[in-house]
Amino acid sequence: MSPKDLEQAYQKNKSRFHDYIDTIKKKAPWDIYTIINPTLIKNPYISEFPKKFFKNNKVGHGSYIEFSKILMKYYGRNIGLLVFYLITFLLYRFSFANQKKKNPRVILDVFGLVEKTVQSGSFNENYLVGVYKVFERCNIPHAILLRPYQQKRNPFVLVNFFKIIHQDARDFIIEYELLRILDFMALLRLILFYPFKTFRLVQKEKVHEDKIFNFCLKEDLESFSFESLTRYILGKNLAKMDDIEKIYSWNEFQAVERGFNYGIRKSNSRVELVGLQFYLNYETYFNTVVDDLDYEMLSSPHRVLVNGKYYLQDREKVKYDVGVSLRYGDLFRFEGVEEELNVLLLGSYAEKDTKNMLNAVRKFDNVIFKSHPAVDVSVFGKLPKNITVSSDSIYTLFKNAKVVISTASGTCTEAVACGVSVVVVASRDGLTANPLVEYGKGEIWDMAYGEDEIADA
What we know:
Structural class: alpha/beta
Distance between the termini: 23 Å
Shape: globular
Radius of gyration: 23 Å
Number of strands: 13
Helix content: 40-55%
């Protein structure tokens, strides 16, 4: 099936896809094993089920030997991660045992980029920029709950990260402060039981979609998130802190957020959870949408704040509100394109799609490439001679851009908002994550499904 055919199949069958998954969720046991299951979460970048559903792929049943291999990989990887987690916990306790007690009313739950923090020697992030000063000005006791992110599997790098955090004047909560040895026993039990709990979700194969679902249910053991369990335990431990009234949590509604929310809401009904979706979203990023069913399962926040009116959802139990564009302040300060000189190529978090895009622009001149901030440009190998790599901000690059070419990136919306034309390159392998909507299509932006269509656009 070509990328264009896949897009058409998606548009035709997307309602049926959501109904299919939601029906399974309604009938399944509502516990941690169901809530963090990657097949049910609908993320097309984690599970193959969405793509196979829309392609209507033929699938086999697989052999016991194949399943045994998947199972052994699952146990090897997750028990290894548990050992790493235990070593990090012991190093943390040995180095930072006598930290001051915190009694915050409000918690700000956000990612902490480990390597970036270690390299710069100070904690900075671009998720909740400016929020901390607001809480300080309003004199609201708060603490920053950090999710260590993008660290190599080296606990000693984390120790350097922790040293920098503990030298910061602000109050931080590190999950290792709340852990007990019994929590590791609970994590081991959850890891051991999880594969067998997925059998409860196996469908009677009445239609072809059931065969696809059962096949992906098995394959998705490889996509299981160990962090979804640690965040679940963290949520349970936070729920025991009496002073907490509200938690503002960066929310992409992945397994890690669902497990965290469930851990808190299952244990404490007093804490209000506010999910922050202050980013530019995509229709095919299915997992970000919070439904009333998720609320009933205790996996969702109570409120969701989004980046604009377009993202508001009509719900009865989950309250959606417009939040603030914390990450896009430069957009409102942009003064316009000065001179149209360059083809600006903006990479995305989807490395394979970015590689395809790089290979499709060999015939163009004056091409400037900026990689996604979370993706090292070295992963793309030797780039074509006509491409120059830049580390400038996208708003500096917009000043001399005649067109932006990108894929699966919210920067497409930023470019259009600044008056720069955009070509969205469709994914060759899966659903295309397009942040733009029908408004302006064919005028300031368009979709391209191959090298020739990119040139035409």
